[in-house]
From TrEMBL:
It is an enzyme of class 2 (transferase). The keyword Ribonucleoprotein does not apply. It comes from Ranitomeya imitator (mimic poison frog). Pfam families: Sulfotransfer_1. This is Sulfotransferase. Signal peptide: none annotated. Its EC number is 2.8.2.-. SUPFAM superfamilies: P-loop containing nucleoside triphosphate hydrolases. It comes from the Eukaryota. Residues 66-377 form the Sulfotransferase domain. InterPro entries: Gal/GlcNAc/GalNAc_ST, P-loop_NTPase, Sulfotransferase_dom.
Length: 405
């Protein structure tokens, strides 16, 4: 009976949101005819309703505006890669806005397949790239009042949302204390003042799911696809997501796989990786000039060089001070805190620490399930505990993954 009730509730929520999407898209269509004045402010300033005015202004987005998608999976080093954009004062960076979509549908309910959230996720991303933050209000809990919320996920991880006019604090902790609330109308206005917007996501399963956004000529979206050795990803998840990976922790500490062990999480990770790489390596026309694959291991080994390559691909000018920030944050002897989102560490020395923390039997299982992915990305297999623990033997083959131009 309980199983039936939550399914009915989920169906009701999906249906309600579907009606909202239809209403919003219909509203967009009312602005297909150019307004008489020359500026978006003159064209749309007479409209009192914030949502309607934002949609009108959206038709006149800045020409030449750059849109960047950091496409990756959880615990792949994406927080650090995101910071390479966040530290650029010319970039409006958002950290995981799709958290709100997932939270809306999964809180208090059994886990829902992320694929069932694709429509909502893509619609939200499209709106955010247009600097339209109003659709986001449908997913924030509790609902914003007068477009003001105290619940914007990791707001402090975006310097743009912590800088004037939004706030005036450079550090995440200070931003959260001094500027607890966020005005989404002001966020939309601030966003439009930037010529580059970057969004990091970990909640879209496959690269192919992003095709509708990449195909949109008005967005001119470019994708930076961050990948990492699946063995390292799993080791990090076991250490970070305690409740979700409890059975893996038991397995890792004892060396014995629990009876009836559910490997769904691991299988899904391997499957998503494999399908995304298959799409990328087939070099489809819709990715031409819009896709770059980055191994976290290469980024960690020479972060300044790799970051420059990424900026060159995206056509972004290198900012003064960015090199020194990267050097400072990737050569730390001791991380200043134990936050799971920390980006300060000695990256070149910690990139293979998973080999010391993951039991050999788990490594063997990952290698069996992710064999194709490991081969595609140039990660060598290990066939003994001695080989696993011998850090002098590099498991990362030298590979050059050129951007698809």
């Amino acid at each position: 009976m309980m199983e039936c009730s939550w399914k009915v509730f989920a169906l009701f929520v999906f249906t309600s949101l579907g009606i909202q999407y239809t209403a919003i898209k219909s509203l967009r269509m009312t602005f297909t005819t150019p307004c008489p004045s020359l500026t978006a402010e003159n064209r749309c300033g007479h409209i009192k309703d914030n949502v309607t005015r934002a949609l009108c202004e959206d038709i006149n987005a800045q020409p030449g505006r750059k849109h960047i998608l950091i496409f990756t999976t959880a615990r792949s080093g994406s927080s650090f890669l995101g910071e390479i954009f966040n530290q650029n004062s010319d970039v409006f960076y958002l950290y995981e806005p799709l958290f709100h979509v997932q939270d809306m549908f999964t809180n208090g309910l059994p886990s829902i397949d992320r694929r069932s959230l694709l429509g909502a996720s893509r619609d939200l991303l499209h709106n955010l790239y247009d600097c339209d933050f109003y659709l986001l209000e449908n997913y924030i809990k509790p609902p914003p009042k007068d477009h003001i919320t105290y619940s914007f996920f990791r707001r402090g991880s975006s310097k743009a949302l912590c800088s004037p006019p939004m706030c005036n604090q450079s550090q995440e902790s200070q931003c959260l204390k001094a500027c607890r609330k966020i005005n989404l109308t002001m966020a939309s206005t601030s966003c439009r003042s930037y010529k580059t917007m970057a969004i990091k996501i970990i909640r879209i399963p496959e690269l192919n799911h992003m095709r509708t956004l990449v195909d949109d000529p008005r967005l001119s979206l470019k994708v930076v696809h961050l990948v990492r050795d699946p063995r390292a990803v799993l080791a990090s998840r076991i250490n970070t997501f305690v409740s979700q990976y409890r059975s893996y922790q038991i397995w890792n500490s004892s060396g014995r796989k629990p009876h009836n062990m559910d490997l769904t999480l691991l299988i899904n990770m391997c499957t998503d990786y494999s399908k995304s790489l298959k799409t990328a390596f087939s070099r489809p026309s819709w990715l031409k000039g819009k896709y770059m694959l980055v191994r976290y291991e290469d980024l960690a080994k020479d972060p300044v060089k790799k970051a420059n390559e990424i900026y060159n691909f995206l056509g972004l000018p290198w900012k003064e001070g960015l090199s020194s920030w990267i050097e400072e944050n990737t050569n730390a002897t001791v991380a200043p805190n134990s936050s799971k989102y920390a980006t300060i560490r000695n990256s070149s020395k910690t990139v293979e620490n998973w080999r010391l923390n993951l039991h050999f039997s788990i490594v063997q299982t990952v290698q069996n399930l992710c064999n194709t992915t490991l081969s595609q990305l140039g990660f060598q297999l290990v066939d003994s505990i001695q080989q696993l623990k011998n850090l002098s033997q590099n498991l990362v083959e030298p590979r050059v993954f050129l951007p698809f131009i």
